[in-house]
Amino acid sequence: MLPNYAISVRRKSRTELKGLDERQLIFELVKDICNDLDVKSLCHKILQNVSILTSADRCSLFLVQGEKDSGNRCLVSTLFDVNPDSTVEEMEEKEEIRIAWGSGIVGYTAESGSMVNIPDAYEDHRFNPNIDGMTGYKTRSMLCMPIKDSAGEVIGVAQVINKQQGQEFTVNDEKVFESYLQFCGIGLRNAQLYERSQLEVKRNQVLLDLARIIFEEQSTIEQMVYRIMTHTQSLLQCERVQILLVHEASQGTFSRVFDLEVKDLQGDDAESRTSPFESRFPINIGITGHVAMTGETVCIVDAYQDSKFDSSVDEFTNFRHKSILCMPIKNTAGKIVGVVQLINKFDNLPFTKNDENFLEAFAIFCGMGIHNTHMYEKAVIAMAKQKVTLEVLSYHAAAPREDALRLMKAKIPSAQALKLYDFKFDDFSLDDNGSLKACLRMFLDLDLIGRFHIEYEVLCRWLCSVKKNYRNVTYHNWRHAFNVAQMMFAIITSTQWWKILGELECLALLVACLCHDLDHRGTNNSFQIKASSPLAQLYTTSTMEHHHFDQSVMILNSAGNQILSNCTPDEYSRVISVLEDAILATDLAVYFRKRGNFFSLVNSQDHDFAKEEHREQLRGMMMTICDVAAITKPWPIQKQVAELVASEFFEQGDIEKEELKITPIDMMNREKKDKLPQMQVGFIDSICMPVYEVFAKLNPELKTLLDGVQGNRGQWNTLVDETLSKEASANNNNNNNNTGTNTDNNASLNK
Prior knowledge:
About 55% of the residues lie in helices and about 10% in strands. With about 750 residues, the chain is α+β, with helices and mostly antiparallel strands. Helix 7 (about 170-215) runs parallel beside helix 10 (about 355-395) and helix 11 (about 400-410) packs across helix 15.
């Protein structure tokens, strides 16, 4: 029942109204109805007032239902047999009467739009005496008048029966009746518009609820479909709602059928139910299959009169199909993924165009919900597969325990014996086994094992696993990772920056150095983007560095490799955070972006490494000078490393030419290998020299590194000069040869 907004004023009694003249009477009756927006209440007032105007014993009001020219229009008794003393509540208990369009006196009045005044109903062939038989009331005189809206369209019929004292309805009754109904038509239309607006408000609220549902209910398709079906049933008022999901492999068949009957919402388990019934009810495959195949909406008034309906579905059930509204459900790409079917609108009414519009909105939301749920289910499956894959990968990534046990038994030389404090450490002096022992020595001398309660076997296995996960590429392999870690160890100990950084950050930096190029493929970030590799799709910036970090975390979380397992939660979070920042800092793009601020801090002597922000910049730059530290080593070592780097770059360039069909940059182009000295000078000037100059200012102990860079620049520059000299000499020889050839040619011509 919609709210009644009538103004609360005392209505005049029948006796008081009878004492008014015609004009005053009409005014009072119009005033009585003008503020009532509830259709039932308004109709009841209209009928009571009509009975006063015409001195009639009983009145009825029929409203038009169905669209114009739809073929299913009829008149429905909104209120029937109202008398001056009846109440709205009493009238609502009476059974509804439906009259076909054009049938009987009421139907004729609606169809013709004309008034009908009958002195004796039983003498008129249009009168249906069966209604008197049903009600036990004897109809004599009758006056029927169409109610029209402002556009002149018939929206209802008012009927008054049996003028008091056995008289006939007069011409004056007709005139007064018609005058009053003109106002009633306007009021009734306003009430209907208000009722529709309230329905629209409800519709919008339901659609908002649906929008919320498809975002909330993505875990299972059953729960999402059930909530959509209950909303559909409550708004469109039908006996049964079905949602059928189309089989992906065969468009005309259905993989799942969800069924909801109105009584399902009334049972003892209605409140606890979260999913509809499946496949419990026969499907009229003729209609649903047709909709699934064609994408057409089907609206049927009488199922048994439609050739597509298979009546056998009703044979073994207590259910009988009458009206059907069936519509396709499409996903966001417009593909039909299902069918929604409404069966038997309440009160034996046909489904209207308005119902179709509502259902279309439901179908859109249902399609979105099904699509989202499918995506969610696929994501869950993908995550499960990923978890299994990670478990398998973690197992195979971890080094065998036997390797760790062998390393545990090994005697670990001192840092002095291994020359780990030396900035000029020979990058090629240790084999794999020796480098693992050297790593253990660094952890021991920094007291990281004791401070963080790292189990010795776990540390040995973790080191073996890290080494195992470096690929056998030309340069970015385990040896490079170890050399970066050795340089970090030498810097931390010689400068005593372990006091600034603290044990936790020292641990994170040492782990970062050993892991910073894990699973390097011998190709850089630019190549990943050019090749549209899965890594480039996964990480849009610092592609390889993000991958190195992820591999680091995977190994740290692998059984038997959890060197951080005895850290407190806060310590663990801090180590992982510093580890991530440190590994990402090895991307030269990050270095270029951040070095300006760091250089300014040092040059202006505004740095305060007690501040986390300044210390973070220090850690990032330390990673860079350790990563490119080969440029500081004695010339033979530097030259050998540079040739390894160039070889790996040329291998990438070969792939770019052969597979990607692009011309590599000079640094990657094997045909430009003679320019290696020139490129090394450029590398030193643009990347290395500035940062080592700043660190030499920051701590005198690091002046050795700057000296090494400057010395190697001189060596490379000498090679550049030699190359240029050879090129100049070769050009002179070519010019001399060309001159001799020209002289001979001229002599031949003179001959």
